[in-house]
Structure formats: structure tokens, C-alpha cells
Design brief:
The chain is of the alpha/beta class and 414 residues long. Helices cover 22% and strands 21% of the residues. The radius of gyration is 29 Å and the shape is elongated. The structure holds 2-acetamido-2-deoxy-beta-D-glucopyranose (6 copies). This is Protein kinase domain-containing protein.
């Protein structure tokens, strides 16, 4: 009996949080057609079925709130106390937010529809706390700033992401792919940059109306747009404020391009290897000992079995060898040693020259495979192409095309 009273008291007490939240919400919104007339003090939102409100019958907590097409205006601030909401739909009203919408109190939310309102500010904060989110529709509002793609791609159940007709800017950076995403729309924003490969399965209309997006499935090619960091771009356009002779300008441009190339290679490399250096060593210290011809010794000498065939992954432009054994028995010239590993020039039996990088530290095999496959698919004039890699338990070898122009280090520093 006592227990029952306790539970009754407890659940009513909890329920009153929602009750108060709904009433203060009602107080704070402008309701031109008096749609919320059933929301009155003397009744119970769960028992007397308030308009748009659904409760869990046993806990008496509000789990769904659906207020669509009612021309309501005001702030949604007091709804944050409805911490057991699973569905919130405020489609097609005139709600607004004075600052960024904070979603973190709705951790059970599965469906959030805020389309066609007057919400502004940056992308709602706390999105990563909504681990159960299935559908998110923020379209036709005034949100601005970048889309936190990384956080969104980490939501395990997200099926719908509709962000069209806002003012989102920046790139659609994201390497990971939503496995389950089926409905995606970022059209009519101010996004720029390349569309990540995994997104190109969505139709053109998901991306249209963003002046500066390029890549599949859009017609505009990214190939002749250089993805240079803004500062360097600026430098190229306005090399110096002083007038310089064309020759000097050309030289500066050339040096910049080489530097960008080095930076791109280094950054790409660092980012999958070390999540970027923390100690500030940006470039590899090349201790070049050219001329000394050696052989790439197998690291675990006893293991001469031909297991390598299945672990050698080859990409476009790979020729001259079929097995990692072909590389290991060719003569190799040490090109340099660096933070990442040791680099050799290898001439295969057929006379083809490749560069083999033996990586020193290893992450778990599963981690690097995906990255290496992405890198192996990159072909660009300013990026040295990865043509194959060999990833076994004890060894990671990266095989690059050979560039005959000598050492980048000496080209840069003379
Ligand atoms: C509504 O509730 C408040 C307290 O929250 C109370 O002061 C007020 O009298 C109530 N109004 C009605 C009409 O019941
Ligand atoms: C919606 O409300 C605004 C005022 O907030 C009013 O001007 C407009 O006519 C209303 N529209 C409808 C369809 O009720
Ligand atoms: C969002 O709300 C949560 C609590 O509900 C709070 O801890 C957090 O600091 C808020 N975040 C921002 C950016 O205001
Ligand atoms: C994306 O949104 C735009 C604008 O509302 C619409 O025209 C287009 O059909 C939508 N595309 C998809 C794939 O949902
Ligand atoms: C970029 O490529 C497109 C065709 O793909 C071409 O029309 C355009 O002129 C090129 N722009 C530059 C700056 O080369
Ligand atoms: C680099 O080598 C290629 C051919 O291997 C040559 O066409 C090019 O002019 C060289 N560039 C420089 C800067 O030496």
C-alpha cells in the first residue's frame, strides 16, 4: 500500500514537471487560432488528452508532442523540460530561437521535425547526445554555420537528414559513411567544397542550390579547383603588396605549389597515422644516404611462406610486380628515413621504378585498411599516387609511384 502510494506520488511528481513545462510553453507562445485551448490548468495532459500530447500510459511522461501547421510563434525553451520526448514535431509554425537550439535534454528523442519555422543560430548544439535519433528535419529555417558532419555520422540510427533551405556554410567534410542513411538533403544552402564519395549515391536534387559544391553527383567537376587552404590561396592571388617581377611571382607560386603538395601529402599521412603530430614536427627529416644499394629484408625472417598475395592490395597504375615477394627480392636504394618510416626506391625485374615506404609504427590493421583504400583511389597532379600496399600482421608497406625529379627536400630548400 505504502509502495503504491509512493509510486503514485512519484509518478505524479514527475508528471508535474511535464505539466508545468507544457503550461509555461503555452504561456510563452502566441496561438492565433487558440489551438491549445485544451491545455488547461485544471486537467491532466495525459488523462484528459491535451491537443498534440501523448504520454506513456505507465510513467505518465510526455513522449510525443505534435503541433503542426498551427501558426504558433514563440520560443520552444520550456519544452526542454520534457526530457522523455521520443517524437517532437513543430512543422510549419513560426517558432524561433534567440540562440542556438540546445537538444541535449532530449536524449530519448527519435524523431525531430522542426521544418518550416524561423529557427536561427548555428546548428543545434548537443546533437551527439541524441544517440537514438532516427529522423532529423531542420529544413526551411534560418540556421547558419557549419554542419557537424562528424557528429552526425556517429549517430548509429540516423536515417533522415533534411537540412535544405537554410544558410549552412562550409564543406560537407566526412569520411565515414552513414550505413543506414536513406534520406539526405542539403540543397539550397551555402555549402562549398567537394561532395564526399559516399554521399554521391544521393540524387542531384539533394545538393542543388549550393553555389560552391562540386563532385558527384553534381555536374561541376572538382578537378580544376584546388583545395588549397585559404591562407595559401590568398598568397597566390596577392603574392606581395609590393610590385614584383613576373619571374619572382612565378617562383613564389611554384614554391607554394610544391609546399602545398608537401603539406597535402604530410597531412594526409599524419591524419591517418597519428591523428596529426602533437610535437610540431611537420616534415620528415630526410637523412638521405643515396647510392647505398640494399635489399628490403623481410622483417620476420623465418616466415617465408607465400601468404602475401592476399594481403597485397593494388590500385590503378600498379605495374611491374604482382606479389610482395617481387618487391622484396628487387634491389632497393635507401631514399630517406623519417618519422613515419623508411623509404626505398625499388627497381623491379621488369625495370619499373617504384617507391616503397616501410612504416615504422603500426595501428591496428583494421584501422588503416579503410584509409589506405581511400588514399589508393586518389589521383591528382599534386598528390603522389599510392599504387599498392601490403598490410600484414608484422609489416605495412606503402608502394608509391616514383617521381623522377629528385628530392622534394632539396627542391624546397636548395
Ligand atoms: C493554475 O495554476 C496556478 C498554480 O500553478 C494557480 O495559481 C492558478 O490558480 C491555477 N489556475 C486555474 C484556473 O486553475
Ligand atoms: C499566422 O499568424 C500571423 C501572425 O503571427 C498572421 O499574420 C497570419 O495571417 C496567420 N496565418 C494563418 C494561415 O493563420
Ligand atoms: C545544453 O543544455 C545542457 C543541459 O540541458 C547543458 O549542460 C549544456 O551546457 C547546454 N549547452 C550549451 C552549448 O548551451
Ligand atoms: C531536396 O530539397 C529540395 C528543396 O526542398 C527539393 O526540391 C528536392 O526535391 C529534395 N530532394 C530530395 C532528394 O529530397
Ligand atoms: C574547369 O573545368 C570546366 C569543365 O570541367 C571548364 O569549363 C572550366 O573552364 C575549368 N576552369 C578552369 C579555371 O580551368
Ligand atoms: C619533372 O620530371 C618530369 C619528367 O620526369 C619533367 O617533365 C619535368 O619538367 C620535371 N620537373 C622539374 C621541376 O624538374
Amino acid at each position: 500500500m505504502l509502495l503504491m502510494i509512493y509510486f503514485l506520488f512519484f509518478s505524479l511528481g514527475q508528471c508535474s514537471v511535464d505539466f508545468n513545462a507544457l503550461l509555461s510553453f503555452k504561456d510563452s507562445v502566441f496561438d492565433p487560432s487558440n489551438s491549445l485551448s485544451s491545455w488547461v490548468n485544471s486537467s491532466n495532459p495525459c488523462i484528459d488528452s491535451w491537443y498534440g500530447v501523448t504520454c506513456n500510459p505507465s510513467t505518465h511522461r510526455v513522449t510525443r508532442l505534435v503541433l503542426e501547421n498551427l501558426n504558433l510563434s514563440g520560443s520552444t525553451h520550456s519544452l526542454h523540460h520534457l526530457s522523455y520526448l521520443r517524437l517532437l514535431s513543430l512543422k510549419n509554425n513560426r517558432f524561433f530561437s534567440s540562440s542556438a537550439v540546445n537538444l541535449s535534454s532530449w536524449r530519448y528523442l527519435r524523431h525531430l521535425y522542426l521544418r518550416q519555422n524561423l529557427f536561427s543560430g548555428t546548428f543545434p548544439v548537443g546533437i551527439s547526445t541524441l544517440r537514438r535519433l532516427h529522423r532529423l528535419d531542420l529544413s526551411h529555417n534560418n540556421f547558419h554555420g557549419e554542419i557537424p558532419m562528424t557528429e552526425l555520422t556517429q549517430l548509429p540510427f540516423l536515417l533522415t537528414l533534411r537540412l535544405e533551405s537554410n544558410s549552412f556554410t562550409g564543406p560537407l567534410n566526412s569520411i565515414a559513411s552513414f550505413s543506414s542513411m536513406s534520406d539526405f538533403n542539403v540543397s539550397e544552402n551555402k555549402l562549398s567544397g567537394e561532395i564526399p564519395a559516399w554521399m554521391s549515391r544521393f540524387p542531384v536534387s539533394s545538393f542543388e542550390g549550393n553555389g560552391d559544391l562540386c563532385g558527384q553527383p553534381l555536374q561541376s567537376d572538382c578537378f580544376n579547383r584546388t583545395a588549397l587552404p585559404a591562407t595559401i590561396k590568398k598568397k597566390i592571388r596577392h603574392p606581395q603588396s609590393k610590385r614584383l617581377s613576373n619571374g619572382v611571382v612565378l617562383m613564389i607560386v611554384a614554391v607554394d605549389v610544391v609546399a602545398v603538395m608537401a603539406a597535402l601529402v604530410t597531412i594526409t599521412w599524419c591524419c591517418y597515422k597519428y591523428k596529426c603530430f602533437s610535437d610540431g614536427t611537420q616534415t620528415e627529416a630526410m637523412e638521405t644516404k643515396s647510392g647505398s644499394t640494399t635489399k628490403l629484408q623481410r622483417r620476420s625472417g623465418s616466415r617465408e611462406v607465400e601468404i602475401e598475395a592476399e594481403e597485397l592490395v593494388m590500385f590503378e597504375g600498379c605495374k611491374g610486380f604482382r606479389k610482395v615477394g617481387d618487391l622484396l627480392k628487387s634491389s632497393a636504394e635507401l631514399l630517406g628515413k623519417g618519422n613515419v618510416g623508411t623509404t626505398y626506391k625499388v627497381v623491379t625485374d621488369g625495370g619499373d621504378m617504384v617507391v616503397v615506404k616501410r612504416v615504422r609504427q603500426r595501428r591496428r590493421r583494421r584501422d588503416v585498411d579503410g584509409w589506405l583504400r581511400i588514399m589508393g583511389g586518389l589521383r591528382h597532379a599534386n598528390i603522389v599516387g599510392l599504387i599498392a600496399y601490403y598490410n600484414s600482421k608484422d609489416e605495412l608497406l606503402l608502394v608509391y609511384e616514383f617521381l623522377s625529379n629528385g628530392s622534394l627536400h632539396s627542391l624546397l630548400h636548395g
